[in-house]
Design a protein that fits this description.
The protein has four helices and ten strands, in the order ββαβββββββααβα. Helix content is about 30%, strand content about 30%. The strands form two sheets. A five-stranded mixed beta barrel has the order 1-2-8-5-4, surrounded by four helices. Strands 6-7 form a two-stranded antiparallel sheet. The longest helix is centred in the C-terminal third of the chain and has 14 residues. Strand 4 and strand 5 form a beta hairpin. About 40% of the residues are buried. By secondary structure, the chain is an alpha+beta fold.
Length: about 160
């Protein structure tokens, strides 16, 4: 498991690794409203074959003045994924007020380090964790940039996945 949000788009997954409070869920929600299929907003379940599996049917969104609300994905107009798919894009990003989206490509080594940094049980199952993260980092494109509004960045992620 990698601490990450995940959606599917045209047969490939977009994985957004990051800690809590980095804006993963709001970005996942924006991608889902654009038609991406929902896998999870918190944990990426990656199999030995490097495919990501559907993990959760709810999304946790924070609303100003209300705190977090856990909602069924259908409540925001989304659909739950049912099949595992290969990872096509790893987007390392975090919300920063006023940030401009200027993604830079990450090398496979940088990608692997970002995934390892967010992998649960990384110390307990090192060999397996390294094997899976190496596979993902060698086969997926990875980009990194701080971001502002999730709704403005989401279409760019779909375009990155489609054109690379």
């Amino acid at each position: 498991f990698v601490h990450a949000g995940v959606v599917g788009w045209n047969g490939r997954a977009i994985v957004i690794p990051g800690r809590s409070m980095t804006g993963k869920s709001s970005l996942i929600a924006s991608l889902v409203t654009l038609g991406a299929s929902y896998y999870s907003d918190d944990l990426a379940a990656i199999g030995l074959d490097g495919r990501v599996h559907p993990y959760s049917s709810t999304i946790s969104l924070r609303y100003p003045g209300e705190g977090a609300r856990v909602l069924p994905i259908a409540e925001i107009g989304g659909r739950m994924a049912v099949e595992p798919i290969p990872i096509g894009l790893v987007a390392v990003t975090k919300y920063q007020s006023g940030a401009e989206w200027k993604p830079q490509r990450l090398s496979p080594g940088e990608t692997m380090m970002r995934l390892i940094d967010n992998t649960l049980l990384a110390r307990d199952r090192k060999k397996l964790m390294l094997q899976i993260n190496r596979m993902v980092s060698q086969h997926a494109i990875a980009i990194s940039s701080p971001r502002g509004d999730a709704a403005k960045v989401a279409p760019h992620l779909l375009t990155w996945l489609e054109t690379n």
